[in-house]
């Protein structure tokens, strides 16, 4: 019966996630159904219980309560402070207990060493004035990913390929890239975050320093034009220079590098045809990626094109650093979604936590 209730409660919580329309009526209906199911379980376990139960029976009902609490969906609802969850759990637990048994349920975070919530039906009375003794206590430890979202201060430099091939197609690749980059900037908070812009063609340039002025950076993005070779190494070097010159202490540094072509200019400015050995140009990129890694910069890369023959996919994967990711955009209109995914990855940090559940049952004296 405990298993049935646990699965039913889990399903009910899932229903609550479906939109906001009619939420009050849904909650009222769910609460009624929970009470009915809980009352049935109560009857199965205790029949017409109006008598004081012994320690062994308390242990049995305690395990039944824990079987409901020991559920990731339920715990996440509690951790995320889902509306009305404490009241619903209190009603459910009370329905599972004999009338002369009281409870205290606490959830705490061991990684943060703090109480998440405490639910009890002791009201304002002290344990000493109501209870003879604590008859049951058990502690459960669960390891689970808790998506506790934390706003982080960001210093981000966008690195955009403006080589000649970015002018291909209609609309052009660079037009899609500019729109996606501007939408990304829109998701930042100018009072908290800074963003800058570098780009590369024949050479790498700093097109906008790290700044809280997001609108000004978007203007700089709009001013990019496609022309020239693919000097990715210098584009990354300029981003590193900008971080060294203007990044703030205690902020998360990241760069998003977009390219659609084969790297073909080395540190000395030598240009390489596609059929030539381009190792010096590729080494330039690797070396600057190492510099960024030492600075603590997270590197995300995006390869734009239908096949990896048109760009250095292996190189873009290789230079990902400090927990960044590589994304492949088969076509330019995929860029918006990719920038959105990177924004979610950067704006919120997922932490792992160990949640301790403690249930105490107390019998009236």
The CATH topology of the largest domain comes to Rossmann fold
Radius of gyration, in Å, reads 29 Å
How many domains, as an integer?
Answer: 2
Q: Report the CATH architecture of the largest domain.
A: 3-Layer(aba) Sandwich
What structural class do you assign from the helix and strand content? alpha/beta
Average predicted confidence as pLDDT: 78
Percentage of helical residues?
40-55%
Q: What is the approximate shape?
A: elongated
CATH homologous superfamily title of the largest domain: von Willebrand factor, type A domain
Largest sheet: 6 strands, mixed
What does this entry look like structurally?
With 365 residues, the chain is of the alpha/beta class. It folds into 2 domains: 2-146 and 351-364; 154-347, von Willebrand factor, type A domain (Rossmann fold). It has 12 helices and 10 strands. It has helices at residues 2-16, 23-46, 55-69, 72-79, 85-96, 127-130, 173-186, 214-222, 232-246, 279-295, 313-318, 335-347, and strands spanning 101-109, 114-120, 131-146, 154-161, 194-200, 204-211, 252-259, 298-304, 326-329, 351-364. The strands form 2 sheets. Strands 6-5-4-7-8-9 form a 6-stranded mixed β-sheet, with helices on both faces. A 4-stranded antiparallel β-sheet has the order 2-1-10-3. Helix 2 (23-46) packs parallel to helix 5. The two termini are 29 Å apart.
